[in-house]
Amino acid sequence: MLFTVRSLLADNDFVFAFDFSKAFDTVRHVTLAGKLAHLELPDSIYNWAVDFLDNHGHCTKHAGLVSAVAVIQASVIQGSALGPGSYIVTAADLHSVYGSNIIFKFADDTYLAVPGDATYTCKNEIAHLQTWAADNNLRLNREKTKEIIFSARRKGALPPPLSGIERVPSLRVLGVTVNDKLTADDHVARLLSSGTSLLYAMRVLRSHGTLPSSLHDIFRATVVSRIQYAAPAWSGMCSTADRTSLLRRSKRLGYCSDDVPVVADLFNTADDDFFHRVNTNSDHVLQPYLPDQTNIPYQLRNRSHDITLINKTKFLNDSDFIIRMLCKYSYWRTICNFCICSYHLYKSLLGKLFNAHYSIVVITQHCIYTDLQLGYYIVPLLCVGCVCQPPINEHGDDDDHHT
Fold first, then answer.
1. Nearest-5° angle of CA 220, CA 226, CA 227?
2. Secondary structure letter of residue 392 according to DSSP
3. Which of 174, 192, 187, 183 is nearest to 320 (CA)?
4. Angle between helices 82-90 and 43-53 (to 10 degrees)
């Protein structure tokens, strides 16, 4: 969703985003069973799903009195494995009216992105959603529908909000808070707020004699896991000051063990793992967002990917996961191969020119990135030189004539 918004901002002054995550509250069993019948499912799976939905009832007991049993013909049992899948099947035929608008669906969360040039389509899209919801026994609750505008200009008049829909400065998309400035400030503030409550709970545990090793495990399971949640989506929007503040107080109080990597390393590991899953899974949901592979007739060194790089813009830059990883795995792997080949080249040449023991000295500025797959430190190469040591003769002494 964020990649799409950034792409639209390249050609539009602003982009609308509507949140319908909590606007739909019921799924009719008959409609769901009809849509399941159109899927290529084995009869046993279809019968199992229908049997799961049938014969559910509800009654109320109070003061020794029991009401009549009411048959449940809509909704799905909360917490059941069939719950998310049932809404996915129900919403499979929900599409935008206009090709310029894009709908994002995940389980029962639904978002609509409308570019600024298509502002006139917003009312028609909302009306289409209401019609679709009525046909599927769902109710579009406008009070729970939110609108946010991502603007490419800091100043300028924005269109008026739609009637009955609240315009907000930030949205919580699948647990990640995104604001209208496309920064992670609000998300980091929420993490720090929840982290403060967790640190108080840990202080209570420590006062009751909880071992430091147990506190470290609790810290990893609560605070660190929250920082790592969906990190590839928002870590690029996180400033250096925000990254430092996430674990600074925890380390000072002793709740965070020394073996916990710094936040930047946690983000890099999350990026690498996630990109590896995307790049190696042709059915991954992010595969359609990757550019086509380059078709080069001549032979090149092996790279992590052969995907065409996307041109960076004001909004499509390293803050976006796809742009960041495509550039990282293309550029840095090339430098890595260059450093390795340079090392072996110098080693071969010096071995032929000098009958001496030698070592390669690489003068660098500072380490920027560690390639975990190759195990080499990738650094900007400023100068390469050699230091020749005199060979040792048969008597074990240095031969000054070959120094």
1. 90
2. B
3. 183
4. 100
Could you count the other beta carbons within 10 Å of the beta carbon of residue 177? Answer: 17
pLDDT value at residue 402: 42
Tell me which residue has tokens 């669906």: 105
Mean pLDDT, the chain, whole residue set: 75
Return all residues near 12 (Cβ < 8 A) that are at least 6 apart.
Answer: 115, 116, 117, 152
Where are the extended beta strands (E) located within 181-300?
none
DSSP 381: E
CB atoms within 10 A of CB 173: 22
H or E stretch covering 203: helix 185-207
Q: What angle do CA 251, 254, 258 make, to 5 degrees?
A: 60
Q: 283-292, pLDDT tens digit by residue? A: 888 888 877 7
- Which DSSP state fits 180? T
Residue 73 Rama label (left phi>0; alpha psi -120 to 50; beta): alpha
Number of Cβ within 10 Å of residue 44's Cβ equals 8
- The reported pLDDT for the residue numbered 47 is 92
Count of Cβ atoms closer than 10 Å to residue 319 Cβ:
18
Helical (H) or strand (E) element with 185:
helix 185-207
Of 155, 283, 180, 285, nearest in space to 237 by CA: 180
Angle subtended by helix axes 82-90 and 29-37, to nearest 10 = 80
Q: For 193-197, 245-249, 384-388, which range has the lowest pLDDT when averaged over its residues?
A: 384-388
Asked whether 116 and 14 are in contact (CB, 8 A), the reply is yes
Contact present, 230 and 237 (Cβ < 8 Å): no
Neighbours of 128 (CB within 10 A): 18
Q: Which residues contact residue 355 at a Cβ distance below 8 angstroms, ignoring those fewer than 6 apart?
A: 391, 402
**pTM, rounded to two decimals:** 0.67
| DSSP secondary structure letters along 60-119 | -EETTEEPPPEE--BS--TT-THHHHHHHHHGGG---SSTT-EEEEETTEEEEEEEGGGG
CA gap 79, 71 in Å, rounded:
20
Evaluate whether 7 touches 14 at the Cβ level (below 8 Å): no
